[in-house]
Design goal:
With about 280 residues, the protein is an alpha/beta fold. It has helices at about 5-10, 15-25, 75-80, 90-105, 125-140, 160-170, 190-195, 205, 215-230, 240-250, 275-280, and strands spanning about 50-55, 60-70, 110-115, 145-150, 175-180, 200, 230-235, 255, 265.
Length: about 280
């Protein structure tokens, strides 16, 4: 059992976690790992992580798990994010990254780990990534299994800077993704600036797509565009078998949503053979 596991399984978990996080921040520079990053004020609350599987329909396996922030009593992400003040943005972003990696390592995750990052909190990617790499090294988690998602639901204040961040991450061998594509601030303009490995279709396009000709037409066009750019489509928030089958017919192979599994707090849910047979109609 490694240092991190012994520490987190010992008594006084919250104090141990604070010491662990403080040690990591201290190792890479205190108080600012990146002096120009926005919001390094200490958090006055703690967080936990839930994980939801991203599945590969071709192999019927878990392709990755997305880490989703939760409150200490399981409160949802919106409730947690509402507590973050502007001056805490950087520290919150980095804390979530570390917490996701530490928890994934403790649970023995073998699949990829997808982490959301706040595009407006990161300034110098080479400096800001150091804490993430330090956490992965200490926990024994392979950093090449990390996926970084930039969400469209947050208005990006400096698109060229975010493009620089994404390209830096890609150059380091990390997979990258645009989250909530089709319902956010940048849309096709952001895709024109950089081409991530994954494009995650937003719920607004997915919901009832089996009954909506317009949504099918728009989504089909996005699939063709992304395929020509070398981006893989991931359909998220899929809730019904009918939605899944329409998307599958478009050639989409990666899926995420309640149809397969709900996010589980500090647990790694799988997908049973029986469920695959049900959704595939076999």
């Amino acid at each position: 059992m490694g240092y991190t596991s012994r520490m987190l399984q010992a008594g006084g978990k919250q104090e141990a976690w604070r010491m662990f996080l403080k040690g990591l921040f201290g190792e890479v520079g205190n108080p600012h790992p990146c002096g120009r990053c926005a919001g390094d004020a200490l958090l006055d609350f703690d967080v936990r992580m839930a994980f939801q599987p991203i599945v590969d329909a071709q192999t019927r396996t878990v392709y990755a798990y997305e880490a989703l922030v939760r409150g200490m009593n399981g409160e949802g992400a919106n409730a947690v994010i509402a507590r973050v003040r502007r001056e805490q943005l950087y520290r919150f972003d980095q804390t979530c990254r570390v917490k996701a990696i530490v928890t994934a390592a403790r649970l023995g995750m073998k699949a990829r780990l997808s982490i959301n990052f706040a595009p407006n909190a990161v300034y110098e990617p080479a400096t800001c990534i150091r804490l993430t790499l330090a956490a992965a090294e200490r926990c024994g988690f392979d950093p090449k299994k990390l996926i970084f998602e930039v969400t469209e639901s947050e208005r990006i204040l400096d698109v060229p800077r975010v493009v620089t961040i994404i390209k830096d991450y890609q150059g380091r061998g990390f997979l990258t993704a645009i989250d909530d594509f089709g319902a956010g601030y940048a849309g096709l303009n952001l895709l024109a600036e950089f081409q991530p490995d994954l494009v995650k279709l937003d719920m607004a396009l997915i919901r009832d797509i089996d009954e909506d000709r317009v949504r099918r037409s728009i989504t089909s066009g996005i699939v063709v565009t992304c395929r020509s750019l070398g981006c893989q489509i991931l359909a998220e928030v899929v809730e019904t078998t009918a939605e899944y089958r329409v998307l599958r017919e478009m050639g989409i192979t990666l899926f995420q949503g309640y149809l397969f599994a709900k996010p589980a707090l500090e647990s790694l849910p799988g997908v049973s053979t029986e469920l695959w047979e049900q959704v595939e109609g076999s």
